[in-house]
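Ticket opened by: R.M.
Priority: normal
Category: complex prediction / small molecule

The reporter submitted a protein together with Z5A and asked that the result be attached to this ticket for the collaborator who will pick it up next week. Submitted input follows.
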Amino acid sequence: MFISFEGIEGCGKTTQLEMLRDHLEWKGKSCVVVREPGGTELGERIRNILLVMEDEAEGIEPWAELFLYSASRAQLVKNVIKPCLEDGKVVLCDRFTDSTLAYQGYGRGLDIDAIKTINSYSTFGITPDVTILIDCPVETGLKRAWHRIKNSEGATEDRFEREAIEFHQRVRRGYLELAQKEPQRIYVVDGTGEISVIHGKICDIIDKVI
Ligand code: Z5A
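Result attached by the on-call engineer:
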């Protein structure tokens, strides 16, 4: 089974993904957790280019950004996700193709159909069985994300957090539109409540699907 977690920055994806992993392992499932961009040696190098902006003067052209995310994904799907699914493991992925549609499509304004085509190549046709979209207001998410960034060690991954509020609003709207189009796969969960309450809702969804 392939489960992806999606949402704007600071919505609580990573927190909830780890809690779900514990829940599924407690139920005897063998789980593998991966994240995008990253999850392979090449992917982590691409992540560093994408999230830690070292050359502010040049910036990253949106199509170049799209291809970098896609390159990271192709490597992750081929080397990790596909083999794990074939082994019967549950794969939990922190962001996947919906992020590309939301950020590069709705956020940056790149052509949605072109992104869908590129996604189909970079995933080798693999799609999540279930996607948990954690939704919260942009202001709430960014506040949490900045708090996390200020308290984290290592390189500062803040290229997206520094985008204008309108960009984040387009991304959020994009996610909600994607969920409306695919209600059988994408489950929207309110991310503004208590962490434990959100976890309970996600467990209910996944337990029913399993
Ligand atoms: N991106 C893209 O453009 N195109 C693509 O195709 C892909 C990605 C795949 C990856 O960052 C960036 O790449 C991302 C989109 C873009 N944009 N950014 N930035 P990422 O996924 O690695 O980073 P992120 O989304 O910013 O992660 P985040 O800030 O860590 O958010 P999160 O995982 O949703 O939240 P969290 O780490 O679970 O929680 C953040 C903080 O809030 C933390 O201190 C928690 O304890 C706290 N928290 C969590 N839930 C709650 C609740 N319910 N109440 C109160 N506090 C909470």
